[in-house]
Amino acid sequence: MPGNNLNASRGGAVWIYQPWLDLVVGCGAWSVPLLLLAYFSSAASTLTWSVAFYALALLFNYPHYMATIYRAYHTKEDFEKYRIFTVHITLLVALTVIFSHFWIRSLPFIFTLYLTASPWHYSGQNYGLFMMFARRAGGQPTNIERRALYAAFLGSYAVLLLSLHTGPSGDPLFISLNIPAMISSRAEAALAVATVACSAFGLSRLIAQAGVRRMIPSLTLLSTEFVWFLAPPLLSLLKHFQVPQSRYSTGVLAVMHSAQYLWITSYYAKREAATTPNRPWRPFSYFAILVVGGIALFIPGPWLSSLVFHFDFTRSFLLFTALVNIHHFILDGAIWKLRDGRIAALLVNSRAQITEGAMEAGSRTMTALRWLAGPSSTARALRVGTAAALLIWGCVDQVHYYFALHSSNLADLKRAASLAPYDTPLEVHLARQALEEGNPQDSVAAWQYAIKANPADPAPRDAWLRYLTQEKRLDEAYQLTDGWLKGAPRDAALLVNHGILAQQFGHAEEAEMSWQKALKLDPSQADADLYLAAEFEKQGKLENAISHYESFVTKVVQRPASNLPPAATMISVALKLADCNTRIHHPDFALRDYKMARTLAAQTGERKLESFAAVAEASLQARLGETSQPLTLYQRALRIDAGLDDEHSEGVDWYLYAMFLRDNGFPARFVYASLLKSESLLSADTHVDSNGDGNGNGNGKDQDAAAASQARKGLEWQLGPQASIIRGDPGPILREALELKR
Q1: From CA 517, how far away is CA 732, in angstroms rounded?
Q2: Each residue of 426-446: pLDDT tens digit?
Q3: Does pTM top 0.85 for this prediction?
Q4: Contact 114/319 with Cβ under 8 angstroms?
Q5: Residue by residue, what is the 3-state secondary structure of 191-208?
Q6: At residue 506, what are phi and psi to the nearest 5 degrees?
Q7: Listed residue (72, 63, 97) closest to 365, CA to CA
Q8: Long-range pairs for 427-432 at CB < 8 Å and ≥24 separation?
Q9: Residue 89 DSSP class
C-alpha cells in the first residue's frame, strides 16, 4: 500500500476519515473481539457462520479484488503505466486458469501458493498503512529504521509461514514443506524475539519525533499485525495445536483485510476524483462497481465452466479463487508500490519496449471500456443489464451454497444440485443421503454427474461400486469398470477395482494383469500387492506371494497413522507371510512373522488373532525341537480362549496342547485332562451346529471331535482307575496344566 505520497508535517492531519473508523477498520482495532466472536460462534453454529462468511464475501472480499482492477484499468494512463501487469500478467493468469482446468494435479500447487502468499499480502498491506500513518504523523524514519520495521512485519509473517508448513499437511489441497516440529518451534521463537526487537528499535525514534498520541494509528497497526500473525503460531506452541492452512485466507481475517483495503482504496479514489474536475466523486457508483465487478471476477467463471464444459464446480471455483487472488497480489503490489519512482523504473516497461501488437490490443481495450462507460443509451442499457444479471447470479450462487451445506437434507441437496449439477462433492453427499433414505435411483444419478464432472476423482466411482457389490450386482460393476478403463486406462485405483471384479468372475489372468499394471503406474498401490500375493499363494507361487506380502507391509507402515488399514488386516498379512515361509522351509522368517502377528494383535486388542498366532508359533517351534517357549505360548493362547465365545477354536487349541504335552513327555494326567476339555468343547460346538445354530462346516467339526475322542480313549488304559477320577473333576488338573514349567 502507498505511503510515500502522504507525508505531512507534524501539525498536519493524521486521520483519513474519522478517528474511530480509521482505528477500528483501517488499523484493525476490532481484530481481537471479531476473532474471538468468530471462534466461539462458529464452534456453536458452523452452518450459520459458514453462510454468513460466504454472504460477506459479496460485500467485502469480492469488491476488494475489484478495487485493484478499478485502480489499474479505470484510466488510460494507469492502464498504459502498468501494462506489464494489466495486459501481460493478466493474460498469463488467464491462460493458467484454462490450463489448470485440464490438469487436475495443478490444483494443490496453485492453492498452496495462494494460501502461502495470502498472509504475506495481508502483512504487506499492514506495513504500508503503518508507514503511511507514521509519515502523516510527522515521522521521518531513516533507512535503517525503515528496514528494521519492515523486518518486524516480515518476521511476523515468517513465524506464521513456519507454522503453516510444520509437519505433514492435513489438507489435500495444501502441500506442506513438512518442517520438523523441533526445528520449526525453535525458529519461531527466535523470529518472534527478533520481531519484537526490530519493532522496538524502529519505533523508538518515530515516537520521539511524532509523539505517542500521533503514533496511535501506527501502533495499533503493529499490534494488529502481531494479533493476526505472531500470536496464533506462538499459542500453538503452548497449546499443541496446528494452525489450519486455510485460516488466513478465509473467514473473519479475510473479511477484516478486505474491509481495510476498501477503506483505504475508497480514500484514494475520492482523493483522485477531487483533482479531476470531469470525474466527480460518486461513492455509491464506486461501491456498486466494486460489488458487481467482484461478482464478475469470481462467480461466472466456475458456473460457466461447470454448466457448459461439465468441469467439477468445486474444483473450478477453487482454481478461480486461487488464481484471481494471485493476480490480485501481483497487481496490487504493482499499482501501489510503483508510486515510488525508483521501483517503477525497475518494473514498468517503457513505451519503446512495448510491442506494436500489445499497443493495439491496449488501445482497442481502452476504446471498448470508454464506450461502455460512455453516455450512449446502448452502453447504459448494457451496463444496467449486466449489473442486474451479475447481482442475480450472485444471489443464485449464495442460494446454491446455502442448500449445499445441508448435507443431511436430501431435498436441499437436490435443490443445490439442480442449480449446479456438476459439483462432485455435492453429488457425493447427495448420493450418500439418498442411499440412507432408500432412494438408490437418485444415488446413481448423482454418481453419474459426479463422474462426468471429475473422472479422476475415485470417490463417486468407489461409492457406486460399493453399492453394486453390496447389492450383488457384480456383473454390472464389472461392466462399469471395464467401460471406465477405456476412458482412463492409466487410472491405477480403477485398475485395482477392476482386477477384484475380474477375479470374482474367475478371470484370474485378467485380474493379475490389472493389478500388475496398477503397480507399474502407481507403485504406492499397496492393495494391488495384497491381491497379487493372495492370487500367487492360491497358485502355489509362494516366493512371489511372499514378495508382494512384504511389499504391502513396507508400503503400509510408511503411511500416517490416520491412513493405516485395520489392525486385523495387518495381522492376517503377517500370518499369511508366516504360513508361506513355513511351506517353503524358511522357519526363521516364519517365526519372525508369527511373532510380529502376535505382538500386533496383543497391542491392538485382537485377542482371537493373538491366540491363533500364539498357537501357530508354538506348533512351529515344537516341530523345531523347542519346548519351553511353545509351552508358554500354548498356555497364553488357552487363557485368551477362555475369554472368547468360540468353543471350536478353544477345543482345537486344547487338543493341540494335549498333543504337545504328550510328545514332550509330560505326565499323562495332564494330557488326558486336556483331551477331556477338548472333546467337551468340540462335542458341544458340533451339537449346536447340527441344530442349525452354528455357521456350517459340520463335517470338519465332527472330525476334530472324533480325533480328540480317539486320543482320549487311547490314554484311558494307560491311566487305569485314575482316568475315572480325572473325568469326575478335571478342573484342578487343567489349572495345573496351565501353570506347567519345563
Answers
A1: 60
A2: 999 999 999 999 899 999 999
A3: no
A4: no
A5: HHHHHHHHHHHHHHHHHH
A6: 80, 10
A7: 72
A8: 427/453, 427/460, 428/459, 428/460, 428/463, 429/404, 431/460, 431/463, 431/464, 432/463
A9: I
